[in-house]
């Protein structure tokens, strides 16, 4: 067995008790039968997954398994970084972009088998100021939508809440400009940028189709247009990764990107689908920074 001590972090408030507890038991049983120590660790508040991950890694747990959506994964990532423990992800939340990237199973028995196999990869981790991310960071359009999602709608209707927020944003269409500084290039004024550490993006979009978790660079896609019609074309083309050839799109690979506000209103920044604040932000890649269960 590659892992002997496994901490499973999950949100007990997501879904009915039976739907939460039965899969956890079905995951733990074969692992314990194989001689593993399995600790089931419920979260109690926002940010708690970070505290649990850091504490369990410090106690010698060699795999921290985040069960939920990409937000839970991102919280656990903050606690695992720098500890030497591996991070795993078992999909079970509203957004599971990492699961799509790594073809991760939902069934607990299959997830237990993956853990017993113990195959990991050393991957690049992105950092937005002092917040780590594994999938992507975004400034402008996607962060504005993520920041306006109604939490109750998200809890009750899942991904549909993001569609409602997107429609509301398109209706009012307030997309403030910002300045993107790529090393070695003149500054560019943009209104939406995605820095991808992985190919997958929420909703099936491929804004950074050449990105890879093992690539030491971030893939940076900058959109410079102003009109809502341009962004409707960009989004449609991004479903198949063909947006890069459209006017107003710049695509680069970079280790470091700095983004500053160009107007009084500072756009929001999101990482792995969670809003972390407004500009300025510096995005950078940290190659081979994490062991990830694949």
Question: Any descriptors?
Answer:
alpha+beta; six-stranded antiparallel β-sheet; lipid biosynthesis; 9 helices; elongated; 294 residues
Describe the fold and architecture.
- By secondary structure, this protein is an alpha+beta fold.
- It has 9 helices and 16 strands.
- The chain has helices at 17-33, 48-58, 70-80, 97-102, 108-117, 141-147, 151-157, 160-172, 228-238; strands at 5-10, 37-42, 63-68, 86-91, 120-128, 131-133, 136-140, 178-182, 188-190, 192-196, 218-223, 249-254, 256-261, 268-271, 274-278, 281-293.
- A 6-stranded antiparallel beta sheet has the order 6-5-16-13-8-9, covered by helices on one side.
- Helix 1 packs parallel to helix 5 (108-117) and helix 2 (48-58) crosses helix 3.
- The radius of gyration is 19 Å and the shape is elongated.
- 43% of the residues are buried.
- Keywords: ATP-binding, Kinase, Lipid biosynthesis, Lipid metabolism, Magnesium, Metal-binding, Nucleotide-binding, Phospholipid biosynthesis, Phospholipid metabolism, Transferase.
- It holds the Pfam family YegS_C.
Structural class: alpha+beta
Query: Oligomeric status of the shown chains?
Result: single chain
Rounded to the nearest angstrom, the radius of gyration is: 19 Å
Q: With helices defined by DSSP (H or I, 4 residues minimum), what is the helix count?
A: 9
How many strand units? Answer: 16
Largest sheet: 6 strands, antiparallel
Mean pLDDT over the residues = 89
Strand order of the largest sheet: 6-5-16-13-8-9
Order of helical and strand elements: EHEHEHEHHEEEHHHEEEEHEEEEE
Poorly predicted runs of 5 or more residues = none
Work out the strand percent.
25-35%
Helicity, as a percent range: 25-40%
Quote the distance from N terminus to C terminus: 15 Å
The backbone outline, from C-alpha atoms, is: elongated
